[in-house]
Amino acid sequence: MNENPADLAPELCVLLAAVLGLVCGxxxxxxxxxxxxVICAAGLVAGLAVAGVAATRPDLTAFGxxxxxxxxxxxxxxxxxxxxxxxxxxxxxxxxHPRESEHYTLVLLSALGAIALGASSDLLVLVAAYLLAxxxxxxxxxxxxxxxxxxxxxxxYLMGALLGVLMLxxxxxxxxxxxxxxxxxxxxxxxxxxxxxxxAGVVALLAGLLFKAGxxxxxxxxxxxxxxxxxxxxxxxxxxxxxxxxxALYRIGxxxxxxxxAGWPALVAVIAAATMTLGNLAAFGQDNVRxxxxxxxxxxxxxxxxPVAMAGRTDLARPALLFYVAxxxxxxxxxxxxxxxxxxxxxxxxxxLLRGSPLVGLALxxxxxxxxxxxxxxxxxxxxxxxxxxxxxxYLWLAVVAAVNSVASVFYYLRWIVPLLGxxxxxxxxxxxxxxxxxxxxxxxxxxxxxxxxxxxAP
Length: 459
Fold this sequence. Notes:
mainly alpha, 2 strands
């Protein structure tokens, strides 16, 4: 065990920025609270810089419960980068808001919870991280205090509370029969434990983490929050918590459970297939772009569960998950940034976007085709790795289901792309800040896809 606080430097940067932002917000007048956004952004940038340095060092376990390895490095960078883009997206809408400082502080605290969720190597830390990632997100969902946002926040909270209680039950069962809460202890203890108890504990534990991931059966909150919450918040809650959730799911499958315990590969594979299929079917008839993106994120959760199911069965599982989750994060934030820039939720409102604003229109096309898995976007590389992991892990049927769903998803993405090619009815007034974020995210998606060889060659 290494008890050097410097090993948690990225997390400490985020925590310090959140505390400073909250304290400064208490004393700054309303028209100067934009400085809190600067403080929070600086903390995220500092965290990214320190996380990049930490990625060059050997793996270790800090304080006996916080793993610092490749999974944590990618989780840190993806979460902090996504949170930074969300802060930039929210800056324009939140300017001079009575609770502007609280908004940025909640974003940072939830992001901190997502990082801890992905780095946890102990069930008790996992539960604490789950709560830290969840509670600020509930407040963010209802931040606008309007009817749709309040309804979305209530549904989000109730489902999180219900599935969180099931998760606590699963932690109790697994720690009891596994004689500990550390993942290494569980892996050894669960090998001789009653399989019925292990299966019950695993299913209950999955309930909470699948809720955070937005996967079946805990996906019902996703479309309501994506439509009812402010667009920047929708981008955040459909991106950042998922990163930590998938990293946590991978660790449980690879480090905490004995091989094939509770039928882990088959169970998660079935959930993955059902999630991607349901997400695609629900997205087909959507005319509201935010609900369309919401069901798109559900289907993407299904694809991301494929390498989770293959954890421990193939060496391709970890790179597939890590690359895909980073690619998904930048693509999803980019798509929501276009929605925020256009200020329209209906498909018809995007008619002529490519003619009126070529850069923003092209950014949207890149993000939507990226979700399909079109080269040279980053998600294309992630899907290739995902298919490879499924095949190498002996799950040909799951690769076939994922391929069919990928092809089927082209239909509803094209429903959004086709209007972009038309003639605009009038001048398009786009938000500059959100437009810049959208273009930057699309460019980063292409750059990550083109440079995938370098990224995957890194140790």
